[in-house]
Amino acid sequence: MTMEQVVIGTRGSALALAQAELTETALGMAFPALQVVREIIKTTGDRRTDVALSQVAKVEGVLDKGVFTKELELALEAGTIDLAVHSLKDVPTVLADHFAIAGVLERAPIRDVLVTKVPGGLDTLPAGATVGTSSVRRAKQLLWLRPDLEVIDLRGNVPTRLSKVAGEDYDAIMLAEAGLVRLGHDLSKTELVDDVELHFAPLAEEVFYPAAGQGAVGFEIRADDADAVAIVKAINHPATFVRVTAEREFLRLLEGGCHTPVGVFTALDGGLITMQARVFPEQGGEPRTGKAEGCDPLEVAKELFESLA
């Protein structure tokens, strides 16, 4: 790349494009003369909507968590893009040596949201209600909190998922608050979808633990691209970077990927990082939990990993 032009790569979903626009705005403010070119790339996860998300990697022979990043990394490697814009929770915790996560935008809200046809959230769902999600983390926590529910697989972008819960196949679905907010949904109001009134109930992160990196837009670059390093550094949000660094390191120590049923979140108060985690056995049962605090994100992640009980 040159300092006159940067090519950013993004998936083509409405949410991915909204995140690309946020990135372009940040770049424009930091570098008014920089020409930003957008390249839309279809990933394995976008293409294989016929398979449960937890099975796509196995079916396609893609590394765990690589289903939404592989093609973007190939474009980085080929030099057709200079910067890949990711939902950070989709990015593997271990990257090839020639790639790096160089920065992040300021984090959006990290909560998970239950979307229902009746108000009241999780407590008012009737016994046996069907809840749609493609996330094993959400599924495990839902069944831990409400073992009477039936959790079934759900694929598609946000508008598609909202249409599905407005239909008859699901009583509720789960989505990330960050995605809903970035797409312009007002969670304080009901919303009419296909003539059905939908209600949004955000679940407090202290009750329903989010995914590592949830709500963060991350920038992957070629590690030896000094110009890209400088550009990303200028739009990086330091507090968010500290938090997601701790969360991704914890997931790395667990050797966990995107289908590992683990929830983790951090709080940053001044320079003090507080982390909590909930790790579910893949075969069911009570989760292991832990809590740690400190000032170095890598050390706090290590302490949290060692504290799991």
TrEMBL record:
It comes from the Bacteria. SUPFAM superfamilies: Periplasmic binding protein-like II, Porphobilinogen deaminase (hydroxymethylbilane synthase), C-terminal domain. Its cofactor is dipyrromethane. Its EC number is 2.5.1.61. It catalyses: 4 porphobilinogen + H2O = hydroxymethylbilane + 4 NH4(+). InterPro entries: HemC, Porphobilin_deaminase_cofac_BS, Porphobilin_deaminase_N, Porphobilinogen_deaminase_C, Porphobilinogen_deaminase_C_sf. Pathway: Porphyrin-containing compound metabolism; protoporphyrin-IX biosynthesis; coproporphyrinogen-III from 5-aminolevulinate: step 2/4. Pfam families: Porphobil_deam (PF01379), Porphobil_deamC (PF03900). The modification S-(dipyrrolylmethanemethyl)cysteine is found at C258. Residues 6-228 form the Porphobilinogen deaminase N-terminal domain. Binds 1 dipyrromethane group covalently. Keywords: Porphyrin biosynthesis, Transferase. Residues 242-304 form the Porphobilinogen deaminase C-terminal domain. The keyword Metal-binding does not apply. The porphobilinogen subunits are added to the dipyrromethane group. Tetrapolymerization of the monopyrrole PBG into the hydroxymethylbilane pre-uroporphyrinogen in several discrete steps. Monomer. Belongs to the HMBS family. This is Porphobilinogen deaminase. It comes from Haloferula sargassicola. The lineage of its organism: Bacteria, Pseudomonadati, Verrucomicrobiota, Verrucomicrobiia, Verrucomicrobiales. The gene is hemC.
